[in-house]
Amino acid sequence: MLKKELLDILVCPQCKGRLKYDVEAAELICHACKLAYPIKEDIPIMLVAKARKIDD
């Protein structure tokens, strides 16, 4: 589980928008870009190339 302090400063690397933390899927979601950034071993992978495209 990610700490609140870290979640407060992380933004989408593509649009610099806010991210929503999906605990169950272990992802940080940017609704503006429709991307989900994976979290591996409590480390967010904030690379656009590694993000999963999502449908809204």
From TrEMBL:
Secretion signal, residue range per the UniProt entry: none
State the family it belongs to. Belongs to the UPF0434 family.
A Pfam family of the record is Trm112p
Q: What is this protein called?
A: UPF0434 protein AMJ52_01165
Please provide the record's keywords in A-Z order: Kinase, Transferase
Give the superkingdom in one word: Bacteria
Which organism's genome codes for this protein? Answer: candidate division TA06 bacterium DG_78
- MF terms in GO: kinase activity
Q: Which Gene3D superfamilies does its entry note? A: 2.20.25.10
GO CC annotation terms, alphabetical: cytosol
